[in-house]
Write a structure and sequence with these properties.
Shape of chain A: flat
Largest sheet of chain A: none
Number of strands of chain A: 0
Oligomer: homodimer
Distance between the termini of chain A: 69 Å
Strand content of chain A: under 5%
Number of helices of chain A: 10
Chain lengths: 214, 214
Amino acid sequence: MTRAPLTVDTIVAAAWELSHGGDAPSVSLRDLGSALGVHPTAIYRHFRDKHELMSAVADRTLQGVAEAADGIADPVAALTAVMQALRATLLAHPAAARVLAEGPTRRSNEVALTERTLGLLRALGLADQDVVEGYHALIELTVGSSVIDATVHALPDGEREETYRRWRADYLGLDADRYPHLAELAPQMYGHAAGDFTFGLGLLLDSLARRAAP
Amino acid sequence: MTRAPLTVDTIVAAAWELSHGGDAPSVSLRDLGSALGVHPTAIYRHFRDKHELMSAVADRTLQGVAEAADGIADPVAALTAVMQALRATLLAHPAAARVLAEGPTRRSNEVALTERTLGLLRALGLADQDVVEGYHALIELTVGSSVIDATVHALPDGEREETYRRWRADYLGLDADRYPHLAELAPQMYGHAAGDFTFGLGLLLDSLARRAAP
DNA sequence: ACCTGAACACCGTTCAAGT
DNA sequence: ACCTGAACACCGTTCAAGT
């Protein structure tokens, strides 16, 4: 009995599976080959190089993100849902997140996400230039938040809390004369990364909504 | 005549030099060794591993960023100057930017930057919790903007414009019935990445200033 | 047409050996 | 104490050879 023939979709699906979680910071072609039961270099028959493969994997990761806005009438609430969904998938697939962070892939799910976001910003009543710049600001905040949090997020729950605790302790241990603000505020830092993102997203959307109002 | 002895500072300075620009996406220990006239593995006598070295290089990259606020009385203007300085150095050193994007190094220049930023947010009149969350939002937007723009920013001027032009053309070529917003707004996208960052930063600071007001 | 095998030019890292 | 040499276990990628 022979193996099912290799296709672009089979390869992307397997690579997407391997890109889960942060314990596997990047997918190697040798690992991917053995997951597919195929020689590592067989992948080059279907993708020009590894970057093209990872770009396809990254786009698969964006499947359904635009649809997070479905059924939400309020544009601000819909934009919040889309950006939270984007952040969730970037945290789950850090290797794909790195590819998306390099610039737009212009692949189908990414295009759908962009189209949806632009439409929601227009529904808010913004001028065209504000729509475009607001879109970039939302993406920049969400991607930044995701890449910053990805490493710690990949840790098991216990280690994650321990890491945050150690960071706070480092700040608390500083000379309070030289670093008065840090020494005082340290206990409140790194308490809840997801909350920080929600706060920042709210700041951006508040400003955008205000620019839209007459 | 014998070579000057290897020190932590010599190594960091040489690695910092090699980390300039985006044509060199990452510094290899073999390249670093030959730049120093030393066997690649000699570096392990001074750093535990490559990550510790790159963490030191990343902090060197932050030298002077906090001082971008010097002499600026208005907290909003000072915060703008600091974040623009941070973005500039992250764009110039993408390899270091990737290390900083993984989480806080808690090294001296980073600590100085954090302390300064917290102080400026407090000067704005914000409550402690808003100071902490506002700080994270500013860093997330700035890091996100920098990693997204770094790849294109590293291209020579002509190629950079050509790349943006190609991206716009890709969006313009889409089916206008399925993607009406993109098709219409494409000409205004990717016009000036630095301007997009300034806009997003303004949105965050506007919201923060409003929260500070009574 | 599609995949394999062998090879190339790289990586970070370890450890015994030199001085 | 500090550095070198050799080796290990990896990478992505190319290209001729197999079927």
